[in-house]
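Re: [ENG-882] Designed sequences occasionally contain unexpected residues at chain ends

Forwarding the minimal case from QA. Structure tokens:
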């Protein structure tokens, strides 16, 4: 039998020989792979990383410097680096510096409060002992005139012993030192943000950088990774950048290949700061993130799906954030308030609540900084912070409908009740059009003016350490001048246009 191959006749036996040769080559390749993998499994992690670095050509990398951190960017750009996000990282560092300072001040205030409470308890114990002394002398005189009694037993449940125990416990708490804050960056990529935190923020403790990006790899690339036990490209790049930034980064930053949701769920209330900066919506990470933050800690969260949050796809926004957006001039502020309401709803499930510190809309994303506390009683006031929005389809006027309200009883106790409604009639009283309803959204203040002023003052004192100082200082200055009483806003152009049209109709 002959087969026609490449225009020539070849016997079938030669074709079989070719197939057997290829099979033998594959067997030899896999045998070599198995031998090498067993050899490299005996090596340590650092030895494997050194071998991998030695095999790579450093000329293929470009050094990118941002702030005080430097990273190695491969020519193939396997790990994404977003230069536009320098504004995001700078404002995060500014808030983190302020948080470290505020945290220290709060701890010192708590220590002074405990010390004063200890002194008051000691004074009360001393006064009570002094008052009991004359009574004991009177009892002794009466006993001396009567029959003799045996020795009085000392009770173990006396208040004096309890006060001494309380004093000792309080002293141990007062003497306790404040540990450096721990930071978790859930989606680290190249690790640039974690490196900047570790190198630029003083008083910071451990920084944990997570990533689960394995990327799309070819079969031989996967075998290469298995051979040298290399993890995902992002974690590999992060570890390489940690080593490249010296001893300070190596001592503070550690990188892990893990799913951020699982990692945060398995480390509840362990991190003082949790940073979420995903590509798109952060909704899938919020439930685990609010559990991972310690009481009084901070959650930094970014959302880049602005088309969804600003009303482009209302049904998608409702499925992700639990709120329906409306299209309007205030859509960016509404996006911030929808994100805050979503974080609050996740926190309430665990008897926790949020206190916004700073909320900004920059470039193509929104970013919020909130502190998380635990209190079942304070959580009851959450409906007072949420509202629905009725927006007119004709003149863009809007009205707010609070979700809840409070009422006082005869004994001055507070009752939490559903809000009154409806807030608007069926049609607008100005133009006769109907209303669209959106929300619920966060209707409480979205900034803390004291924090904003403190952050601005710190930035002015070290402006050289912020690559995007001009941009973020302008944003923070604008925020410091905003009145927090009003919710959303009217566009002056739309307002004058409506007034002009109404005047033309009447005249």
């Amino acid at each position: 039998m002959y087969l026609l191959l490449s225009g020539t006749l070849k016997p079938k036996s030669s074709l079989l020989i070719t197939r057997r040769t290829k099979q033998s080559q594959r067997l030899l390749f896999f045998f070599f792979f198995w031998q090498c993998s067993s050899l490299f499994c005996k090596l340590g992690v650092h030895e494997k990383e050194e071998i991998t670095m030695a095999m790579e050509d450093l000329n293929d990398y470009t050094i990118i410097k941002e702030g005080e951190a430097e990273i190695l960017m491969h020519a193939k750009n396997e790990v994404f680096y977003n230069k536009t996000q320098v504004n995001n990282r700078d404002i995060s560092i500014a808030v983190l510096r302020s948080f470290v300072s505020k945290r220290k001040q709060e701890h010192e205030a708590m220590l002074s409060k405990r010390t004063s409470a200890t002194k008051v308890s000691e004074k009360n114990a001393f006064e009570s002992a002094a008052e009991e002394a004359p009574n004991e002398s009177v009892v002794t005189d009466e006993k001396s005139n009567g029959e003799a009694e045996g020795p009085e037993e000392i009770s173990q449940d006396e208040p004096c012993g309890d006060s001494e125990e309380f004093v000792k416990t309080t002293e141990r708490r007062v003497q306790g030192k404040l540990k450096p804050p721990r930071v978790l960056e859930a989606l680290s990529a190249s690790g640039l943000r974690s490196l900047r935190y570790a190198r630029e923020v003083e008083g910071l403790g451990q920084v944990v950088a997570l990533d689960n990006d394995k990327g799309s790899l070819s079969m031989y690339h996967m075998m290469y990774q298995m051979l040298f036990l290399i993890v995902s490209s992002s974690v590999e790049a992060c570890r390489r950048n940690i080593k490249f930034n010296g001893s300070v980064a190596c001592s503070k930053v550690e990188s892990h290949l893990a799913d951020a949701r699982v990692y945060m769920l398995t480390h509840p209330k362990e991190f003082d700061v949790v940073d979420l900066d995903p590509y798109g919506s952060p909704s899938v990470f919020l439930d685990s993130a609010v559990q991972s933050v310690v009481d009084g800690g901070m959650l930094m969260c970014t959302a880049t799906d602005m088309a969804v949050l600003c009303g482009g796809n209302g049904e998608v926004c409702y499925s992700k954030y639990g709120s329906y957006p409306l299209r309007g001039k205030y859509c960016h502020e509404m996006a911030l308030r929808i994100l805050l309401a979503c974080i609050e709803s996740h926190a309430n499930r665990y008897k926790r609540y949020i206190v916004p510190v700073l909320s900004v809309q920059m470039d193509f994303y929104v970013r919020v900084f909130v502190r998380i506390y635990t209190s079942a009683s304070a959580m009851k006031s959450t409906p007072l912070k949420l509202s629905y929005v009725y927006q007119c389809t004709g003149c863009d006027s809007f009205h707010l409908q609070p979700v809840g309200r409070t009422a006082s009883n005869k004994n001055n106790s507070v009752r939490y009740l559903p809000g009154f409604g409806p807030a608007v009639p069926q049609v607008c009283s100005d133009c006769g059009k109907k209303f669209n309803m959106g929300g619920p959204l966060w209707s409480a203040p979205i900034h803390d003016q004291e924090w904003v002023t403190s952050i601005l003052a710190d930035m002015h004192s070290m402006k050289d350490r912020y690559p995007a100082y001009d941009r973020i200082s302008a944003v923070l200055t604008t925020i410091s001048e905003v009145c927090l009483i009003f919710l959303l806003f009217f566009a002056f152009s739309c307002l004058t246009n409506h007034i002009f049209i109404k005047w033309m109709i009447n005249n």
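QA comment: On inspection the terminal residues look reasonable. The longest strand covers residues 293-303. Proposing we downgrade this to a documentation issue.
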